[in-house]
What we know:
Elements: E1 3-9, H1 13-23, E2 28-34, E3 51-53, H2 65-79, E4 87-92, E5 95-97, H3 101-110, E6 115-117, E7 120-121, H4 132-135, H5 145-156, H6 166-169, E8 176-177, E9 182-185, H7 186-198, H8 200-207, H9 216-222, E10 230-231, E11 235-237, H10 251-256, E12 263-267, E13 270-274, E14 276-278, H11 285-306
Parallel strand pairs: 1-2, 1-4, 2-3, 6-10, 11-14
Antiparallel strand pairs: 4-9, 5-14, 6-9, 7-8, 12-13
Amino acid sequence: xxxxxxxxxxxNPKHLQRxxxxxxxxxxxxxxxxDRKSNMDDFSGINGxxxxxxxxxxxxxxxDFSTVRAILMLMQMATTDDRxxxxxxxxxxxxxxxxxxxxxxxxxxxxxxxxxxxxxQMPNEAAGKPISRLTTYTHNPDxxxxxxxxxRVLVKTGFIPRERNYKAHLYGLxxxxxxxxxxxxxxxxxxxxxxxxxNPRIVNFxxxxxxxxxxFFQTILGNSPFRSNIQSNLTYSNWEAGGAHPSLISEKDLxxxxxxxxxxxxDVYGTREILFARKFSDDAEEMVAKxxxxxxxxxxxxxxxxx
Length: 307
């Protein structure tokens, strides 16, 4: 079982190095996209076996299709690698494993053929996925001011509708949404890349939706032959504080990660096992050290059981 970790990052280079160190093995590689708005010099010290940075970098913006473009770039880069990787977990540079690397690799081997991606049909208010994410035209942050004004004029005068007909633009596809982070098989990644090439009209519609990284991949796979093999994703985030972003991992979260076997959580996406957690900062060295100690204890426990 070989794993290509797809990582998007824009800050916290110290933690990104910790993440790579924690997951490194003979069976893994890391494909990293650094936001073009970030200073690449801050990441120049990152090293490790099988670490590859995207040469072409995209200016990524929260809630914008530029994030999807960066992910697709990573997916294309990793799937065309000669090593023919089996699984492709998407992580942020502020993630960290909560299980030993050997456990993670065994997990993917045991669940070979399963796609781990949160999925609910839109609209779903409980999951915070309103249909307005599709019906509202979303401007790109790099759009010219004149283009934004001209569209407002066309809407106000009735030349174009205020809300978009998503059903017509999706050509019969059912819209799905979830969270940005996932772990997909090689076959699913290739399916997505082929879909993008073969369906430019649908892709162009999704480019102008709100937070497309939470619906683009979900809608493609939710309407694919992979639908029956989908389970919820493997990344833990703490959303108790509310808002658009999760809280930093705290001591309270660490208690959840201490169980000897599978770490199971339940939320709006169902009951699921988690392998990774987010988010951590460069200043989380003490917190990460506690997780590392916990992981070592799990490894020792597993070794004792196998003797």
